[in-house]
Amino acid sequence: MSSLGQFCPTLNLLSLAIVALLTGCAKEPSMAVLETDAHGYACEKCGAKFYTGQKEFLGGKCPKCGEYALADVVAYKCSADQHITLRLKVSGPAGAAVCEQCGAKLKDAMVSPREKELKAWGAVKTNV
């Protein structure tokens, strides 16, 4: 038996380990819906809509009215018509989202809003 024949199982295991490491570094497709280039907010007191950059976050104080009434904005993607519905992040039964275009219930459809969607929704960029 040649010396190459003795190393084949070792080379196969080494090759598999390298492939596993390389593919393990790739981003999971399911995580892509959570990535965003902006963060959206709306004031529950005055109704103003804002967004910040990817690495910036507003506290709870509204830049327009000065009240501590800011709420996070989330997006829902409708599987029926692919429409993106933006709304305040609400938990519990009151948090059930409905597509504003076709009226379908948007269960398990939450995605992070993007800057272009926040702009179309009427949000204004603000600096922290």
Description:
23% of the residues lie in helices and 22% in strands. The longest helix is centred in the N-terminal third of the chain and has 22 residues, at 3-24. Strands 1, 2, 3, 4, 5 and 6 form a 6-stranded mixed sheet that branches. It has 128 residues and is of the alpha+beta class. The chain has one domain. A hairpin with a 6-residue loop joins strand 3 (70-77) and strand 4. It starts with a helix and ends with a strand. The chain has 2 helices and 6 strands; from the N terminus they run H-E-E-E-E-E-H-E.
Give a quick set of tags describing it.
128 residues; alpha+beta; 2 helices; 23% helix; 22% strand
Q: In percent, how much strand structure appears in the residues?
A: 15-25%
Q: Enumerate how many helices there are, as a single number.
A: 2
Mean of residue pLDDT values: 80
| Secondary-structure element string | HEEEEEHE
Classify the helix fraction into a percent range.
10-25%
User: What is the alpha-carbon Rg in Å?
Assistant: 23 Å
Tell me the span between the first and last alpha carbons: 70 Å
Question: What's the layout of helices and strands?
Answer:
Blueprint: H1 3-24, E1 38-43, E2 49-53, E3 70-77, E4 84-88, E5 110-111, H2 115-121, E6 124-125
Parallel strand pairs: 2-6
Antiparallel strand pairs: 1-2, 1-3, 3-4, 3-5
